[in-house]
Here is the input.
Amino acid sequence: MKQVVQNYKSGELAVLDVPVPGCKPGGVLVRSAFSLISTGTELMKVSEAGMSMLGKARSRPDQVAKVMQSVATNGVPATYRKVMGKLDSYTPLGYSLCGVVEQVGAGIDDVKVGDLVACAGNEHALHAELNWVPKNLYARVPDGLAPPHAAFGTVGSIALQGVRQGEPQLGEVALVIGLGLIGQLVVQLLAASGVRVVGADPDPARCELAERLGAQAAGDPASAAVESAVAELTGGHGVDQVYLAAGGGSNQPVELAARLCRDRGRVVDIGKCRLDLPWNAYYEKELDVRFSRSYGPGRYDPEYELEGRDYPIGYVRWTERRNLACFLDLLARGSVDVEPLISHVAEFDDAVETYQRLKDGDLKAVAVLFRYPDHTAQAEAPAVAVPTVNVQRSPARAARTPVRLAFVGAGNYATSMLLPHLAQRDGVELSTVVTTTALSAANAQRKFGFAEATTDLDAVLGDKSIDAVFVVTRHSSHAELTRRALLAGKTVFVEKPLALTEDELAGVLAAVEESGNDRLQVGFNRRFSPLLREARQRFGTRTGPANLRYLVNAGRLQHGSWYLQQGAEGSRFAGEGGHFIDTASWLLDADPVSVYAVATSGNEDLQVVLRYPDGSTATISYVTTGPAGFPKETLDLVADGRALRLDDFVRASVYGSKRWVSSRLPKARDKGQSAELAAFVKAVRTGGPMPVPLQSLVATTAATLAVQAGLAGGAPVTLARSR
Here is the structure.
């Protein structure tokens, strides 16, 4: 994709081809339609880049102070290399745009692919064809609002936050000093709030524009016109509030504010003007000086902007995201009009020329937009690679008796579904349990008889007497822990999911190839269920394609469950869906070749359709909104005039030339954990084949990952075999 960049050392501007950003959890990938040039902030940055090194230093004394501190700490040579390396690199431009959601990351449920959004942030709403934008820095564009107008969202939020800081009230009089882009928006917002406005700017054209947009009067601050208008509107008392929306090095705006403000009036700094406050003037009137920090509360807070942690509305009514949504609403309802502010619309490919014309003064503008190429043509169907494992396998050695096992993690699933089956098994020794907290390790040691309990994972991986490692931790750590254990030469049992991303899966397989150790099992236990295995045997061999339906009544999670931490731990389906895909693939005796997924609003309920090489299909309905009393898992398989039905691992039946129904006596649901563990321990002890081929584990994991890609892209995802 293309992006506008600048080299701060040389001042060079360029439109570069750069990699497309990934769609990380907690945000969306947005294709730009229009982005707005800030003729104040951005042109100041462009101008600074063209200065000499001395000029740059004078313009950024704050950075000079940091450099001097670095010199004192690290010395001149190291500081010089660091500073030059930072200066002599490309930096992005832009922070306000409107575009179309192209991909939705995990944890996002308020927008979908194809939605029009306004985006903010000098790291996320750049002049680029594609941007990844975290949740709190975008807002859906109201119906009917034109994309060029929605591109003003960020700049409008800056103006709106400034007005909020002034706390205007009906009937008050305000003075706006500086009638550039921000100033013009402040004028309109104040007028919409029932405030009478006077504008001040040396440019007659901007003064005329402000009067057309709602100012009672506007004029050159050096003339008597502004003072006369203030006196007439306030009865000689002075304005209730002043908004400093001017830039530059003059102290005139600050002095004018003091002269025309009433006693105990409010002065709000929105722009970046010189602030040498005349002490006597401000003291005698006891003026309230306030600062407006960019788009609003949340700005510069990484937990809010990057991690999506919102502030409770009862404590922080207007965050930067709520300001953004509010300004878009004002635009949609016609309370603010930005069309008169648009001086020029440039094609994105002409970005460098446009900046140069603005810098040189050839293009005089209040607001300039970049228009991006239209990409509404049908995109190719996305594809997810299914890596093919190619490994020079080291011969598996038979383990000693008993088989010595280590557990990494001792949470609820490990202690309730795995360890009870292993603690009393002949030929098994529970050697070591590793947890991040000492108490949980000690509890597991006491309950299940581990020889040792520790928090030192490295010691366990380095212990040559341990034959196999169980990874039973939170989802986000599975791939990395598996990779490390394989490299350490251990046989590995990892609970699902094996990986949450394609990169994580590739990392695991890279460890297999590097070590020659492919001794891996993922906890897909349902294929080991005695009831399901008997039903499959009675169904017999297929000759034609099959149709499989799998209904999973997953239910709602309790508030506070870590499964809800989708940004860190992946979606619920990413964590659990591999079970059902593996079961379907085992019953159909093949790996899927494509995945199509659709979801209800909020991605709570999913429909996943898997297609197989022989034309068979499997539909998995994963629902969280079903009744608690309904069975969790029901499965139907139909082919060749026969049907297999499984009722929640309690009963099973097969219909064909003969009918078979399992026992009607109530039984505990055996989902196969005991048989799965027995098969795993046998493979470790004998050095024989693993219970499930590695390529099958990889294919199931890739298909699970493809569900999220399918939801984001709205099209079937091909599962393409690759290295």
